[in-house]
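HOLO CASE FILE
Compound: 2-acetamido-2-deoxy-beta-D-glucopyranose
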Amino acid sequence: MVLYQVFLAAVVVGAFTLGPEMAEAVTMGPSLQKLTWHYYKVYNTCENAENFVRHQVETFYKNDKSITPKLLRLLYSDCFVSGCDASILLEGPNSERMAQQNRGLGAFVIIDKIKIVLEQRCPGVVSCADILNLATRDAVHLAGAPSYPVFTGRRDGLMSDRRTVDLPLPSISWEEAMAYFQSRGLSVLDMATLLGSHSMGRTHCSYVVDRLYNFNKTGKPNPTISKSFLSEMAKQCPSRARKGQTEPLVYLNPDSGSSHNFTSSYYSRILSNKSVLEVDQQLLYNDATKQISKEFSESFEDFRKSFALSMSKMGAINVLTKNEGEIRRDCRRRN
Ligand SMILES: *[C@@H]1O[C@H](CO)[C@@H](O)[C@H](O)[C@H]1NC(C)=O
Ligand SMILES: *[C@@H]1O[C@H](CO)[C@@H](O)[C@H](O)[C@H]1NC(C)=O
Ligand SMILES: *[C@@H]1O[C@H](CO)[C@@H](O)[C@H](O)[C@H]1NC(C)=O
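Model generated. Tokens follow.
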């Protein structure tokens, strides 16, 4: 993964030999260039901000491994809709978090706790958007991903509107998914890599039952699903939920299960037709994403490196900097 090495080399040069202006200039991509590696240290506004975040994430993680998939989903839901501006954290009857696609989002309390700590140490300085990016990085690292550089200096958005939430359903076709990622400046490699977040976490059966019982309105299962896996899934997700029962949850990657660890087994499962979601299995039906899935299933290191790079790119989508937005004092409310 040559790209990643270039990227890291640029980061390292920026940190150790150049001042803040140059550190900004050597980073990658137009949007990433607006951010700075170790912004709060470089500008001397909250030298230990990243340590404070990491400490809190470690404390939460000890009690609950599921914070990793929850933070990943929260970050994705924030960045893909109106950019990484923490708009997903704002409360209100018409805010993004009230959109149907964002039902079941968690980890808000983790961000709140980290924000309280940072407001005590460095009042009014560290944005909620940066906290979300840093906390997610630390949580995926604890789960087995590399600790990639998170560029900081984001500011928090002033608006959050549920009508802007265009997150696709997990039954989306490959073409639609690709168009969606491309509209955010991400590539086919980024898409195949970021979907690897489904290496952990859980989903509702309602997102799976179509492919188990009524694929493409045929009244039959998707014929490509492995037979053994199909009967396993059918047990966990009955064709219709029994009366009065809450809708069951299933692991997105049964191999990782309740350990919620970060592995490349997500890609091996795609190759053996054992993906839980249709969007995951579709990576097999395009030559480019099939090749990427093969590469990642064979080399965990390649997946880890690509993940670091794609997460950095996702974290830079439409960021607010300089005098845009604000630094919220409470992540759930505008100042
Ligand atoms: C779904 O059904 C339509 C109409 O029968 C067909 O054209 C299309 O190829 C099918 N899609 C898949 C993914 O099988
Ligand atoms: C991930 O968790 C599964 C299930 O607990 C376990 O079998 C596997 O060894 C773990 N992998 C790593 C890399 O920790
Ligand atoms: C997965 O499904 C595809 C398409 O139906 C098939 O060509 C392939 O052989 C299957 N792979 C495995 C490991 O069963």
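CASE NOTES: The two ends are 43 Å apart (CA to CA). The pocket of 2-acetamido-2-deoxy-beta-D-glucopyranose (ligand 3) is lined by residues 224, 226, 272-273 (CB under 6 Å).
CLOSED: yes
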